[in-house]
Design brief:
By secondary structure, the chain is an all-alpha fold. It contains five helices and no strands.
């Protein structure tokens, strides 16, 4: 892989980088989805009367937390020290996680009215949750050789 610091020569056509950034994005999506979907499903099952916006904000926060936890665990398995693992998980992918969470919850809101998990909406949320940060993750990996995993 060649990394270019010249923005005019940036290469958006590197298949190995797209593949690695897709893998990184999928790990992030898994982590975010656990907290996000779990929170929405919990409030759906208890038939909460809390405002949809409150539930969705809590789902985003929980998605970010579970993603950081998952990414930290992955890095620990790669022999990172705990402090380095958590700093890496927070520092390199937080923009990706936030964009992923916002677009997933916005999709849920547009399609269902918000804070509702239906089998038909989950795949759509996952697809937009993956596609939104993927180019950013590619760019960051290609330009700075920075990834979470």
């Amino acid at each position: 892989m060649s990394f270019s610091s010249d923005k005019n020569n940036f290469d958006w056509y590197c298949k190995p980088t797209w593949k690695k950034s897709a893998k990184n994005t999928l790990w992030c999506l898994l982590g975010c989805s656990i907290g996000d979907f779990g929170t929405i499903l919990y409030f759906q099952l208890i038939q909460s009367q809390l405002p949809v916006l409150f539930i969705m904000i809590l789902a985003i926060i929980n998605g970010l937390i579970t993603s950081v936890i998952l990414e930290t665990l992955i890095l620990l398995k790669q022999k990172f020290k705990f402090k380095e693992a958590i700093q890496t998980a927070l520092g390199m992918s937080f923009i990706s996680m936030i964009s992923m969470e916002i677009v997933m919850n916005l999709t849920d809101y547009i399609l269902t009215g918000g804070a509702i998990i239906n089998l038909w909406v989950v795949p759509i949320m996952l697809i937009v949750g993956f596609l939104t940060p993927w180019p950013y993750n590619y760019w960051r990996l290609k330009k700075f050789n920075e990834a979470c995993h």
